[in-house]
Amino acid sequence: MTKEKLLTYLVIVLVLLNAVLIIFVLTDRQSKPPRRPQVFEVITERLNLDRDQQTKFNKLRHDHRRKMDSLDNSFEQAMLNYFDLLRDSSVNKQAQDSIETIMGNIEKQKAKTTLLHFFQVKSILRQDQKSKFDDLTPELIKVMGSRNSKPPKRD
Q: If pLDDT is split at 50, 70 and 90, which confidence band does 35 have?
């Protein structure tokens, strides 16, 4: 085999490998699941918020996020305290119950904070948007929850 034929085969192999690599990269990007929409995006788009409403909504969002971050930090600290109970050789039932109550109260406060937030969001809406918001609630619950969750059924 001459050097020219060898180089020709090598060039063909390299071109084929590049083609396979390009196809792999392009199909890999297309196979990724789409990004989950954020609650604020769903509300802003579906309710067609005007600029003033968007400004108010963004302030409400940031206030809510700040409160939720604080509650998340409190919950994380409670969880650390909870698992610190493992350091003892036996279960301290009173300490366990106390910390579980604290964690439950934090989760309750997070739910209350979120409910209040959505009441505040609803208060900046026009009447026609409020009925759309009510219809949108099950979808918002789904967006806030896990990717596979379904909104609760109403009886």
A: confident
Match 């949108």 to its residue by tokens: 136
Contacts of 48 by beta carbon, 8 Å cutoff, 6+ apart: 129
Q: What is the pTM of this model?
A: 0.68
CB 121 within 8 A of CB 134: no
- Residue range 107-154, pLDDT digits in tens: 999 999 999 999 999 999 999 999 899 888 888 887 776 444 444 454
Going by C-beta distance under 8 Å and a sequence separation of 6 or more, which residues neighbour residue 45? none
- Where does residue 23 rank: exposed (0-12), middle (13-18), buried (19+ CB within 10 A)? exposed
**Measured in whole angstroms, how far is the alpha carbon of residue 118 from the centre of its chain?**
17
> Which class does domain 39-144 fall in?
mainly alpha
Type of residue at 99:
I
**Domain coordinates in residue numbering, the chain:** 1-32, 39-144
